[in-house]
Design a protein that fits this description.
mainly beta, elongated
């Protein structure tokens, strides 16, 4: 066996998007805000994508974290995120119902 001529990998500088899904409980806040309670903190200013199920359709909204602080919920430390909508919602019908809501990093 000879030596490999081609590299097994290449390194490049590229920008992209990383999506990390988290299950959270979301309730409406004041005006264009949502309050999310989850197991992970978030950095203030972090941009997220919030997907909610509304009347059987998935509503996707882009939000920014205005506040993140620990909260005690049923004896467990959780994280309370105050999220502010940064654009109008986009709706897509997926034909199924869901009971959990997710937040993903953008």
């Amino acid at each position: 066996m000879g030596r490999r001529i081609n590299d097994r990998h290449g390194v490049m500088n590229a920008e992209g998007t990383l999506r990390v899904s988290r299950d959270v409980t979301v309730r409406p806040g004041v005006e264009n805000e949502f309050i999310a309670i989850g197991s992970e903190p978030a950095a203030c200013g972090e941009r997220l994508t919030l997907e909610r199920i509304v009347n059987g359709a998935t509503v996707t909204e882009h939000v920014v974290v205005d506040d993140s602080r620990p909260a005690l919920v049923d004896g467990s430390v959780r994280h309370r995120l105050r999220l502010r909508r940064i654009d109008e919602p986009a709706t897509r019908n997926n034909g199924s119902e869901a009971t959990t809501m997710g937040v993903g990093n953008r």
